[in-house]
TrEMBL record:
Organism: Streptomyces flavofungini
Keyword Protease: no
Domain called Acyl-CoA thioesterase 2 C-terminal: residue spans: 168-284
Protein name: Acyl-CoA thioesterase II
Keyword Ion transport: no
Family indicated by similarity: Belongs to the C/M/P thioester hydrolase family.
Length: 300
């Protein structure tokens, strides 16, 4: 059986069915909708496949318009907006069963020597990732065993996720909590040497925990969930080359939640503290009934 990392690479390997049209698999999962990071990652693959390959992506801006259905293929139509001397722009529309579910615009930049560089230092000093428990280990430690459904999910999870601060389990533990979260992440196995695959894999991962920061002051990340959540839009800026199968620190915060929407910002650093990627996402939060069990890494 292929490893979760192999399956992620396979998921990002789209079928080209026309010059600017690609088809992506959507695995049959026990989810109500397709994971947003999957759609964003596949759309970015489609955009990248229509370029010459010598210009890394430097930014993307995306809108989640409708929930995708697990198990149903997604078609990605690419519009070649611009091929300039330094920048290439692509617009991608994701279609499932005749309906647009997602839009993405991506910009690619010819590498060049900058006139200057600066970077603010990381906000936190995080312990080494290997010194922290995995999410599965934290759940086992609290519950005594991993529920069967989560056991299956953990075996399929393509990323190793380790929370810098332990998971909070009770209302008392979230009292006075700031809307901040941080995790170490890396793919659970090698992803090959194609830079586009690593960029799209990290795009996939960027949607896994970002809205945690919005929820932390309101409810424990594990336990009965009082809200339906959905990603509304997602933006990323890629500053430096990286590998998604090496440890990166994802520092997340929510500056505001109001009107049923919560804004989250993320900064992704390598293990040496160099800023690799900046992320911004807005999510929709609505109370629901009945309450149901959530997961520490919510699907958007």
């Amino acid at each position: 059986m292929n490893s979760p990392a192999d399956r992620l690479v396979d998921l990002l390997d789209l079928e080209q069915i026309e010059v600017n049209i690609f088809r992506g698999r959507s695995p049959q999962e026990s989810l109500q909708r397709v994971f947003g990071g999957q759609v964003a990652g596949q759309a970015l693959v489609a955009a990248g496949r229509t370029t010459e390959g010598d210009r890394p992506v430097h930014s993307l801006h995306a809108y989640f318009l409708r929930p995708g259905r697990p198990g149903v293929p997604i078609v990605y139509q690419v519009e070649r907006v611009r091929d300039g001397r330094s920048f290439t722009t692509r617009r991608v529309t994701a279609i499932q069963q005749g309906r647009t579910i997602f839009n993405l615009t991506a910009s690619f930049h010819q590498p060049e020597q900058g006139a200057f560089e600066h970077q603010l230092p990381p906000r936190i000093e995080a312990p080494a990732p290997e010194s922290l428990p995995t999410v599965a280990e934290e759940i086992k430690g609290h519950l005594g065993a991993l529920p069967e459904q989560l056991e299956r999910m953990a075996r399929r999870q393509p990323f190793d996720i380790r929370y810098v601060d332990r998971l909070r389990w009770t209302a008392d533990e979230i009292k006075d909590a700031e809307p901040r979260s941080a995790v170490w992440m890396r793919a659970v196995g090698p992803l090959g040497d194609d830079p586009l695959v690593h960029t799209c894999a990290l795009t996939y991962a960027s949607d896994m925990t970002l809205l945690d920061a919005v929820r932390i002051p309101v409810e424990p990340l594990w336990g009965p969930r009082g809200f339906d959540m959905a990603s509304l839009d997602h933006a990323m800026w890629f500053h430096r080359p990286f590998r998604a199968d090496e440890w990166f620190l994802y520092d997340q915060e929510s500056p505001i939640a109001t009107g049923g929407r919560g804004l989250a910002r993320g900064r992704i650093y390598d293990i040496e503290g160099r800023l690799l990627v900046s992320v911004v996402q807005e999510g929709l939060f609505r109370p629901h009934t009945p309450r149901h069990m959530g997961t520490p890494t919510p699907d958007a």
